[in-house]
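Please fill in the sequence for the structure shown.

STRUCTURE ENCODING:
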């Protein structure tokens, strides 16, 4: 692959930098039960084929989401995030890769998690200082796969085009956010069938984060 010069790099967190212990199935189920209990979704809705962020956006767009119900949903989500992040460990080679990349590029972290949960996990694992900013759901108008977070990060360097950035993530929602935000995407241990099924075309698939050192 031809080496491409990039000005900034955006990393996903769960299952990209950290081996996530978050129970996403339980999270989706909790959101679904809240939505059905309050009439935002029908009990027959296929919640298992949607991501947690998609279920949240469905609730937001239903026209029936009260501030009290949204708060209850976020409390349930945040509790599961904190429990999962408390046990999270680094993916292989994260420290060495980030140490080298930060000398050449500004690094940002983009996660659908709450800022407090993300920041605590990154501090505990010793990599928080590698990033210019931790961008969590509080900085987004909509969660990934929406490109809101990508656009927020790109706005920090208004003189740079979106094409100057690269996003690294494991999920199709990372790729979709990057793609819709005009940013290149590198899939780390990504599921090709899932990526293709959602129209995501990564610049590359990698199985080892050290591959980024030669690629970027």
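FILLED IN BY: designer on duty
SEQUENCE:
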């Amino acid at each position: 692959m031809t080496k491409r010069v990039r000005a900034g790099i955006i990393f996903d967190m769960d299952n990209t930098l950290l081996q996530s212990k978050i129970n996403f199935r339980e999270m989706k189920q909790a959101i679904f039960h809240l939505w059905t209990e309050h009439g935002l979704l029908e009990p027959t809705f296929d919640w298992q084929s949607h991501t947690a962020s998609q279920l949240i956006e469905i609730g937001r767009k239903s026209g029936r989401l009260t501030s009290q119900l949204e708060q209850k949903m976020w409390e349930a989500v945040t509790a599961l995030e904190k429990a999962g992040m408390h046990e999270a460990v680094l993916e292989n080679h994260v420290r060495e890769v980030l140490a080298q990349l930060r000398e050449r590029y500004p690094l940002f972290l983009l996660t659908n998690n709450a800022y407090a949960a993300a920041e605590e996990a990154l501090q505990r694992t010793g990599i928080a200082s590698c990033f210019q900013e931790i961008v969590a759901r509080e900085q987004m108008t909509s969660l990934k796969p929406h490109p809101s977070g990508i656009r927020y990060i790109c706005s920090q360097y208004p003189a740079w085009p979106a094409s100057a950035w690269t996003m690294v993530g494991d999920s199709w929602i990372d790729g979709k956010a990057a793609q819709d935000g005009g940013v290149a995407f590198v899939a780390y241990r990504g599921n090709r069938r899932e990526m293709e099924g959602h129209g995501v075309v990564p610049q590359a698939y990698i199985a080892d984060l050290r591959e980024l050192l030669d690629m970027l």
